[in-house]
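Q: Could you write out the predicted structure for this multi-component system? I'm mainly interested in how the pieces pack against one another.
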Amino acid sequence: MSTIEAPRTPVAAPRNKRGINWEKWGWIYMRASGVVLVVLIFGHLFVNVFAGEGVKAIDFAFVAGKWADPFWVAWDTLLLWLALIHGSNGMRTIINDYAGAGLVRRILLISLATSTAVLLVLGTLVIYTLDPCPAGTAANLLPSFCPVK
Amino acid sequence: MPEQSAGALVDAIPRPPRIGSSKRPAGTLYRGREGMWSWVLHRITGVAIFFFLLVHILDTALVRISPEAYNAVIGTYKTPIMGLGEIALVAAIGLHALNGIRIILIDFWSVGTRHQKLMFWIAIGLWVVLLIGFIPRQLVHIFGGGA
């Protein structure tokens, strides 16, 4: 019986026998985060596009009103981190499957890591530094709890 | 004679059967059934959701620029074409989520692998139920009166 070479033989790094098995933890992460994301995303979709007037109710006042509640701040922070890392690890798998071992693969992986890091920082800053009542904005665009100026 | 040996060599090579013939060997192309197609759908929906997520983080970040900037961009999500796009998005997320649960059951449930084909069709069934629940409501939101 002839032997078939292991998948990704030209690309795969030599297996590190000691230390952390990152591929194993990535595999576990996809499943653990996947279960949580089912709850987080369907909750997000239910509140934002199913309940009430649906997508037509979404505006600045809707988002700022949601983030005045620590519950939704925690929900959306968790959603941002779990979903983007889940998605970017999935894209990493696809790049490793289809791109060769050369420069293209390196460029794709570096772009993926960079865009993921930038969006995680950006998204987190947006959630935690939002002023729900910016000065000089018409009151009808703001959440109802903003003081009338 | 060289011609003779060359002729004998050609005769020794079997002619490839006609394409579509039942005698044609499958070759090296993998032709899976439910298992393969669930994998294909998982990849396609995963990539689509990933790129939506990139855009969605950026459009939400506009709340930090100004209420007017955010409202102008989110307004484009309320048009009929984007309303249909949201149906496609929910369909993609629903399929990825349900098939993802199937994958987890295959990996961790002792008899999961044995039932993977049945679980694929259960996932498709639940997905249809999800869309039957969502699509009419979304159509009312998008094409109904108001706003």
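A: Regarding packing and overall arrangement: Helices of chain A lie at 22-50, 60-66, 70-98, 103-129.
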